[in-house]
Amino acid sequence: MNDSLLIKKSIGFYVSASLIVIAVVSPWVKARIGTDPLLWTLEFLLFKGGPTRIILGLYWATAVAVAVAYAVKSLAPRKDPGSGAVLNLKRKYFHALATVMFAPGYVYDPDFMHLAFSVSLSALILVEYIRHFRVWPFGPYLQDFLTRFLDARDRGPVILSHLYLLVGCAGPVWLNSIINVNEKTALAGLSGVLTLGIGDALVGAFTVKPG
After folding, report:
1. What value, to the nearest 5°, has the Cα angle with vertex 68 and ends 80 and 133?
2. 20 to 30 Å CA-CA from 183: which of 125, 150, 158, 164?
3. Does residue 115 contact residue 44 with C-beta atoms inside 8 Å?
4. Cα–Cα distances in Å, from 210 out to 75, 82, 113, 164?
5. What is the pLDDT of residue 176?
């Protein structure tokens, strides 16, 4: 596919996606919550919960920026990822990042963490779509970056590891917010983050031998 055709199709994708959000998703959400989704989001972030949500948002944005910059510079500098042990340790970096980001968010503001997980899952699905179909201008860069962390478990056309990690961390948070119990503990909501972010990373680090 030549560059001009790719750009035209990519623009068509962005326009179509925007129209779906404006004409379908936004009215449906408005009908469900009884108010404009954008106004509800702004009110939720800026006027409810005090400054905690703004601070958490800035913390997450900073953590993502630093983590991605480090990963681009230090973890994925070349096409050859090295041995299986080295690649495994590189992948566990993202498990540690999940713990650093998600644990404080849930401890300080479970409702915000619930919403953030939902938005993040939608964003990751969109990113994977852009990567898989090489949507200009981000698709080729995402393909080049993400494929440097693939192993035998990600040999299909769709990369699912990052989605599995997010859903594994988010599942207990979502369930803990809807179950009808008298006492909800932070440990229950954090079980996914602790299991995948710390437990799985430690198991991978100590069970895979270099060479």
Report:
1. 70
2. 164
3. yes
4. 17, 10, 37, 25
5. 84
Determine contact, residues 133/66, Cβ cutoff 8 Å: no
Q: Measure the CA–CA gap between 104 and 173, rounded to whole angstroms.
A: 13
Q: Which amino acid is at 108?
A: Y
Between CA 88 and CA 95, with CA 92 as vertex, the angle to 5 degrees is: 155
How far apart (Å, rounded) are the C-alpha atoms in residues 45 and 58? Answer: 12
**pLDDT reported for residue 90:** 75
Lookup: tokens for 65 = 């920026």
> If you write DSSP's letter for every residue of 84-100 in order, what string do you get?
HHHHHHHHHHHHHHHHH
What is the spatial distance between Cα 100 and Cα 104, in angstroms, rounded to a whole number? 7
Q: Where are the beta strands (DSSP E) in 12-69?
A: none
Please report the pLDDT score of residue 1 as a whole number.
Answer: 60
Mean pLDDT by 10 residues, the chain (211 residues): 84 94 94 92 88 92 90 67 62 84 91 92 93 91 84 77 90 82 71 81 57 37
Locate 176 and state its tokens. Answer: 């803990």
State the pLDDT at residue 78. Answer: 56
Q: Give the pLDDT of residue 145.
A: 85
Token pair listed for 36: 């404009």
For the beta carbon of residue 27, count every other beta carbon within 10 angstroms: 11
Tally of CB atoms within 10 A around 140: 14
